[in-house]
Amino acid sequence: MTDLSKRVALVTGGSRGIGRAVAISLAEAGAGVAVNFLEQSAAADSVVKAIRDKGGKAIAVRADV
After folding, report:
1. Which of 12, 32, 51, 64 is the most buried (most CB within 10 A)?
2. Cβ–Cβ < 8 Å for 46, 21
3. Which runs of consecutive H residues, i.e. helices, occur in 1-65?
4. Rg for the chain, CA atoms, rounded
């Protein structure tokens, strides 16, 4: 993946499954990540923690998209 250090990504459904994997991959490439969720706040917080523990930037955002 290319260097995304000056980018921000919004990952809808980022709290589980493929969305979780995409959010973590984007963060590993340097992007700041907004992890979107609707009901799974604990799962979204887990993704944010995983990203931050590796030195990345992430927030969880509750929204119905």
Report:
1. 51
2. no
3. 17-28, 41-53
4. 10
**Residue 12: which domain range?**
8-62
d(CA 16, CA 2): 24
CA distances (Å), 32 to each of 25, 26, 29, in order?
11, 8, 9
Residues 26, 51: Cα–Cα separation, whole Å: 10
In a domain, 1, yes or no: no
- Residue 17 Rama label (left phi>0; alpha psi -120 to 50; beta): left
Amino acid at 29: A
Number of domains comprising the chain: 1
Could you tell me the sign of the dihedral formed by the alpha carbons of 54, 15, 2, 58, in that order? negative
